[in-house]
Amino acid sequence: MSTQFDVIVIGAGPGGYVAAIRAAQLGLKTACIDDFVGKDGKPALGGTCLNVGCIPSKALLDSSKQFHNLTHSFKEHGISADNASIDVSAMVARKDKIVKQFTGGITMLFKANKVTPFAGRGKLLANRQVEVTAADGSKQVLTATNVIIAAGSKPIELPFAKFDGQYILDNASALDVNAVPKRLGVIGAGVIGLELGSVWKRLGSEVTVLEALPEFLAAADADIAKAAKREFDKQGLKIHLNAKVSNVQVQNNEVQLSYTDKDGEKQITVDKLLVAVGRRAYTEGLLGDGTGVKLDERGRVLVDEHCWTGAEGVWAIGDCVRGPMLAHKASEEGIAVAEIIAGKPGHVNLDTVPWVIYTEPEVAWVGKTEQQLKAEGVAYKTGSFPFAAVGRAVAMNETAGMVKVIAHAETDRILGVHMVGACVSEMIHEAVVAMEFHGSAEDLARICHAHPTLSEAVHEAALAVDKRAIHKAN
Description:
The chain is α/β, with parallel strands linked by helices and 474 residues long. The protein has 12 helices and 22 strands.
């Protein structure tokens, strides 16, 4: 097998595998290295996202949503089902089948595009050489004209709550729980904590979420976060803010937690504990001597706006560099870098990367929040519209949430769009397109939206920016 390539990609997650495919499409001889091993013990492409992240979590979210609807919401539609039950093993098996389908799909795409895969841990050496260490410890060295580092990220582990895969879970082991826990504790009210907490709450768990920050979803717009928390509270998710966990003990097949909030020290006991306090760049052992590549204080690879590390022919993308840790951001950076290497223009606008939380209701946003604009001293105006006033939402029995549009007070240019509600993960892209084309709230307001659709909430929110919404009092 050849050891000389035009491009070597370290990592086969949604940044790495996409970069490898695009490089190969552009006529570059490409290799891709990854050390992920699937549940069957065999190498599995796709990284965290496809194996133990985005895809499997959405499979479980959908299964749990169907069960919850069957046992709750469907009654309002005149649909009843007696003694409904959930087979958790079958649900997890369905998830595993979907994962296998997609990881196998990448293998086929690599073959079709003539990308050479290497199973093992990649380490960048000097002069764009890459050492590959296989699972059996054997090593080989590859050489490339260009190297793209796409090493990804891994869960942050708390020193007093080490992952054991049985009682104290990370995002991966939380996807393989074989029975509905009576009590589930979650440390961290971020994307992973809320999504996986929602899965088990819908299936019957008593879920308690402990968030150290005083604000809920601090990264989201405050109005959207408030509306989302109101719905989660209705669902029975017990979310405690400003709750700092200090000790975790596993005793008698239970997990005992000690935490402090505004009222002092407290304790709770749960059957399983999911620790979801964030992720960090997976760069340990990634760099040899003399590479010219530098890491920041958080262990991320330092890059410029074009994902160049400053070392000749070495680039880095995705979770291991600055910017949001999102699969789609990584993919776009991978494509951009492959095209730059091939002499084409490549660009990613980090200001228009959409964010989504796949809870019920979903939360999605793009651009600046109102609190960010206030802090920056930017003059702005806002318009919002509730899904409760949208005919399609009422017909679907999905009336929770709202759309909020923020525009510049003088130019009317869209600065941010924020949503909470059904299907907003799909609706947010209208706002992304509008912002990429430097659109105004007036532009959104003048676009004809089909009736009846959920997207009419975007139309009305844009109209509301100038206090001319039709279906609500301005």
